[in-house]
Each structure stands twice: as structure tokens, then as C-alpha cells.
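Progress narrative, work stream C.
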Amino acid sequence: MAHTIAQSEAQAQPKMSTAGSQTATVAPLPTERFIPLTALALVDRLTVPSAWPNGDHQSARRFFRYLDFWRRQQHNRRLMSLLRAYEPFDPDSDLLITRQYTTDEKRRLQKRAVSEIKRTLERANYVALDPKSVEVILTKDSHYGLDLHVDMGVFEECLLYYRGASKKRDTRTNYRKFLRKEEFDVPIYRRLVLLFKLKPFAVRVKEVMAEKNISEKEATKIVTRMRGSLPTEVKEGNIYIKMFKNIPRNDLEMVFPNTRVRFRLLDKIKLGVTGGGAVGMGLVGTAGKLAAGGLTAANPVALLGAFAGLGGIAFRQGVNFMNQKQRYMVVMAQNLYFHAMADNRGVMIKLSECGADEDVKEEILLYSVLAKEPAKRSDLELIDAAIEKYLRTTFDIQVDFELPDALDRLIADGIVREDADGTLHTLPPLEAARHLDAKWDRFLDDLPDGATQEGLELDAEDFPHL
């Protein structure tokens, strides 16, 4: 490097350095790209007067404000395009259906909507989880004491993303310590997003036929029974998106629509012992009465009464079984109620806002380095390490900073220019603000006309009823 950032910025600003930038402590949880700060918190610290020795701190603050508005407008344009693609699959729409799509058009729109939602999640610095991973999904060490199961084969589309792997403190009763309360850590995902779409019924029937080597009639019965566990509102033609908060990592199964509650081993033993004991005692008592009194011939009414008593015992145990399962379902429903944040279009709007926030934070951090000292693309690794060290030192947070994407966005908007040899030139704050002002003036003029869209508008007599 030709020179480093001025000494007056040493405590307030990220700077490039070949020493000390690799001394980060190892975080107990996976390092994420998500920056858990507001953009305002960064702007306040990055625009202190001592950070801009030429008196450009006010201009820098104005540029960062312009950049915030500009980046949100870019995300909003993509959001509008995504919402149009999602419209045929929206389960919550209360609008009149005036447009008809062919099968091929719906397939293209589905592919576009899912890929754009995936891209939006990644722009918001969410991390993908593999829904088919047995280690991730089919866990039995449930925080809420539930044993859950999910059949992943029913989904045509399934995305599972999280952001903010963390822990929270909770309390539980320790029966080994005379019912004393104790605190413990619960691994959680602070944000969890699930997207799913069911496979068409006929497609799933064919898959079950091939998997189990059975007839179409038998496979149809199986699929019908499995679909019966889904809420009636879940339709195979819709795409569903759910956002949750603070989901325990061992209870991911509860966010799926086809979750089945199964009894834990302890509950099976308890029900088996109590139920088996009660029925056994009933059988012994009935057999004793039969042997002692000759009930079959002498007193048929007493015989019927003895068997009725035995049936009552069996019925009571069956009721206990169903009540236990109902308690499980209530626990799951109550916890999902407090974890749910948004559905469908609401999720996409939230993700778009989060994506814009993350972009702005990454860009103002990078700009604060590039605007004050010369750099080349070959220096990106040092810049990345310097920014991560700054965040760790200033805010005590561990972040895997995503530098290349932020640089590409600044280059695309003309804020940074790259020479053939990799040298990076950055507009000064005042000039950068004027540059974005001019781009904003041209924004509407550069919008595409949107004339080419899938679907065909229907006449009023062909409108389907809501």
C-alpha cells in the first residue's frame, strides 16, 4: 500500500494493515455475513469530523443518506417485479383474477419467483439450510419436548434459510435436583424463512408407486391419507412463504405444514405401563368373576356388566392416549403463534427491506476505506480483514464481510471506477452525492415499458368467481 489511513482515524475507522488483522477470536457459532447494526449507527461513527481531515464529513454523511435512498429504490424495483411473478401463486390475494396463464407460462413464473426469492434472501445475508438433511431436520432432542416428523417428499419447491445463529437463556425444572429451576442455553435461529410448494397430486402418486413398488390404487390411498394431515387451506397450486423468529434449532420441524407429532419414548413407556396395567387388572378381575360365579349361565346381566367394565377401562386408556397427543399439538401451536412474523407477500417485503439495509451497510463501510487511500483489486483481502477488525473492535461483533458484491455495486453505479491494472478510483463525497442525484433524475426515464409479460387478459364474462 502507498500509505495508510491517517493516525487520527485509528480508533474510529477501518484501515488496511498487514499486521493484526488476522487475530480474531474464534466465535462459538458460525460466522455470518449479516451485520447486526443499523445503518445509522455506522454512519454516525464513520462520519465523525476526525475521520475526514479535509472537512468532508458533512458531505460524506449526505452521500451516505443519498446512497441509502438510492439502494432502497433499486430493491423496490426488483420487489415489484417479484410480486408480479408471484401473483398467480399468492394464497392471500383478494383481487379479481383477470389474467390467464398457460401451463408453460406458470412454470416460467414459478421458476422466476422462486429464484428471485432465493436471491433476495441471499442479498439479505440469509444462510441456506438443506431441508433434506437428516441431521438438521429430523431431530429428537426437542426444546419443547416434542418428537416431530416431516415427509419432505411432498414438496416440489422447498427453501429453508436462517439468519442470526445465536443462543438464548431459558429455565427448566430439574427433577434430579428436587424440582429446582436451572438455566440453560438454547441454540436458536433469530430469523428463519421457509418457502414451500406442494407437488401435484398425480406426480406424488407416481413417485409413491415407484418408491414402494405398488399399484396406482394403493399409492393414491397413501397420498390421499398423507394429504389429509395438511391444513385444508394449503393448495398445490400456491407458493407459501413463512418467516419466524427465535426458532430453537432442534425444533425446525414444527415450521413445516405437514409436521406429524409422534410420542416420545418416555410417553410410550408411561402410557404402556399405565394402560397395560389397568387393562391387565381388568382382565384378571373379569376372569375371576367368571370362574367364581359361573356368570355365563347363571347371570348373563352380570356377565355383560363385567365386560362393560373392561371396555370402560380400555376406552379410558384410549382417551388418555388422545389427550396426550392433543397436548402435544397445543404446545406446538402455541409456540408457533409466538414465533411467527410474516407470511407470503409480507415476507418478501421484509426481505427486500433487509436486503437494502445490508447492501447500504456494506457499501458505506467499503467506501469509507476506498475514499481515503488508494487501493487495487489485489488489496481486497486486506480491506476485508480491516473492516472485519473494525467491526469487531468497535462493536464487538464477528462478521464475515462480503466485499466483492459491495464493490461491484459501487462500480455499477459509477461511484468507483476500476482501471485495467485493477486500480480503484472513488468519487469524493460531494461529487458522489451529486452523481447519485443525477442518476435519480434519470431513474424513471430508464425504466423499461414492461409491455412483454406472461398471461392474457380475460374479458369480463370470463372472470372466475372469487
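Work stream C, second folded protein:
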Amino acid sequence: MATLDYTKRLQNIQNRKFDKELNESVISKSFSSNEIPQNIKYLAESMRQIDQKYNNKTFDAANRVQKHLQDNFDLHFNRAYKTQGSVITDTNIKVHSDFDLLTIIDRYHFLEPGLPNENSYEDTSPDDDIKSLRDQSIKILKNIYDEVDTSGAKSISIFNKSLNRKVDIVFCFWYHSKKFIETKDEHYKGIYLYEFPTKTKIRDYPFAHINNVNYKGNTTKDGSRKGIRLLKNLKADGDIKLSSFHLTSIVHNIENTSLNYTFGNELLIAKAISDEMNLIINEPTHRKGISSPNGTEKPLEKDDLVPEIKKIKDDLDTLIIDSAKEINSPSIRKALLTY
């Protein structure tokens, strides 16, 4: 069983939730209370959301990038802009979370194989178009921002110093799935990410992911989001090689009834996640059958993920055991209800 340094971990959370511009942390007022033991404080604070006023600064940074691009592009095709990232699903654990601005060629689209293409477009090369989109973006943003990173295979990024926010600009094509064609539901509209070194298109459904994660979060009264935030904090504080996508998929697979949040039941949500991880570790068929939130991928199929899931479960179980020793104290339960 792991041993957790709660003093260090609480400091880590405080650092992640510190806004340099406002010189304040987004932590609960109860964070400094001596009535709540450190283990329970870590459990509760790990699950708390980032206040919307801090997330709004991230949206502001992306909106500024979009305006700079839109005002200065000289291209033969229109662009559409969408956003993605943990801020959109309210599962971010840092004030300064990275944020994706999807910049999409909006003159034509690709179709799922087998669908009839009644609006074929052959006037220009998609490879040339998306290269022009990226090249012009780099030129425009370098004239405005001091820090522009062009090393990404699928994106470039800027750092807005005044807002202290990083924005990734991701270049894409539209991808229309059969389900989108049938339903006209924007959540089933896909994109092709573009890997520039290899000129490879990678299909993704970010809007379905966002919609489904948010729907589950709302249905469970923020319980599933709390579970995702908890796992992300455990990952950030440990040497654990799992992506946010893996962690989100683990929580998303749990039944809603086990994740419903009511004041003071953080430990029950943590136990439900531990139970799910136990199945994932011990039943390969169960693990390999877990779908991503958008339903198109099996993110836990690879066997080499199991040791990493064991690591994070070990830390989670230690937190559960440590917290269970004290959480039923009337004074602590009262303090937790107002956390």
C-alpha cells in the first residue's frame, strides 16, 4: 500500500489553483481549516471545480487568437472555429489549463466511406489548403505574440502573457459521419486532425466527447466530473503514465447511480472508481470493452496500461483507507458538508 505525503500534495493543489495575475488561489475557504484532516482535505479539494471566472480567462485568450486570425487571413476558403479541452467539460484541475482552438477549413468536408458524395470538391488540394492555413496562422501570430511554438505535429501554440494562458491552434477538416448525415445533430459531426510531417488525417469526434462527458456530469450532479478531477490530481501528484483521456474513460464507464453526488459523499464516489479499476485490472475482457465517451475508441485495450492503472489505484485506495478512518466523525462530516 502506498504512503501519501498529504502536506506536499495539498501544496501541489494550491500551486495548480493559484492565479498569478490575481495573486489568489481558487481553493475552498475551508482549505485552511484545522478541523479537517489533511487526507480528507486532499480528497475534497481534489474533486472541487475551478471557479468559472478563472476559466473565462481561458476562453478570452482563445477568443483573442480567433479574432487575430480571422481579421488577418488571406485565404480562398472560410474557416470555422470550435474549442475543446478539459475547461469545456469542467474537469480541469489547473487555473492555467491548456486550451484547443480548432481551426477548420469550412469550404468542403470529407465523408465516411460508403456515403455518396453529392457535393464533391476538387478545385484545390486539401493538403495545400491546410498547409496554407497553418503557414498564415504562424505568420499572423508571430506578429502579435512573443511566444509562438511551431514544433507540434498537429498544432501550433501561443502564450498570452497578459492572461497567462496557453492556447493550442489545431488545424482540421470537417468529417461527416453517417450518423451526422442521418440526424443532423452537431454532436455527431467529426473532424480530421492533420499530422503535418506525415500528411496523415486522423478522425476524431470531439463534440460527441464534450457532449457526453457534460451530460454524464449533469446527470450525476457533478459526481462524474468530481471523479475525473480526483484521478487527474492523483496522476499529477504521482509518477503515473496515463492520459486524461484514459482517466475520463474509466470514470465514464461507471454507472451513474454509483457516481451521483450529494454533499459529503466524496468517499463513496472514490470507492466506486476503485471498484471499477479492480474490474479493469482483473478482467481483461471488461477492460478491453470499455469505450471512450464518444463511443468510437477502446482506449484501455493495451496491456501495458494495466501497471499504470494499478499505480493510481494504489494511491486512490490509500486515500480511501486514510479518509475512512476519520470521515464519520460528526465534526468532520459537518465541516465537509460546508467545504
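Strands lie at 18-19, 24-25, 79-84, 99-111, 148-149, 155-160, 165-176, 189-195, 200-204. No further action is required on this item.
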